[in-house]
Amino acid sequence: MERICVFCGSSSGKDPGYADAATAVGRLLAERGIGVVYGGGQVGLMGVVADATLEAGGEVIGVIPKHLMRAEIAHHGLTELHVVEDMHERKATMARLSDAFLALPGGAGTLEELFEVWTWAQLGLHAKPVGLLDVGGYYTKMVEFLDHMVTEGFLGEASRDLVTVDADPHAVLGVFSRHTYTPVDKWAG
Fold this sequence. Notes:
The protein is α/β, with parallel strands linked by helices. Helices cover 42% and strands 17% of the residues. It contains seven helices and seven strands, in the order E-H-E-H-E-E-H-E-H-E-H-H-E-H. Strands 4-3-2-1-5-6-7 form a seven-stranded parallel beta sheet, sandwiched between helices. Strand 5 (100-103), helix 4 and strand 6 (130-133) form a beta-alpha-beta unit. The longest helix is centred in the first third of the chain and has 16 residues, at 16-31.
């Protein structure tokens, strides 16, 4: 695995454990020789992941749309910074440059990015692993809701299983390294 796309907040959140986890993920990826692709900002958890990866000698590729250059304060110390036209091009570029996707805590944008790549996997548009790092139980209620979607018949078990959830980044990377994609019949009951 050459690069992992990391989705996370442009804020750091209230719990310092979120930033600690982002630092640990950045260092871990650099130590394993895995580059980071992310949204290109220097603020929030995005900046924490980028800085930790760079400080550990890793590659960091940022992708930021023109209209967010100022709002997210683009990180100019990256290995590469791609400035794109809009959010659609941002997500497509990040997906193209990545071999896997990992969501850390974040807000609506993080969830939107996560759900889009998960849906793409479900539809067979890519065969890359998707994971959630459940830092301090941040995603516990959402994961319960995903399981509820299965129970209620709106999501198949195979589609649910396309997302790896763990609090330990080592465990998530272990699953990623063993990943084999099995096409999902989204419309099967």
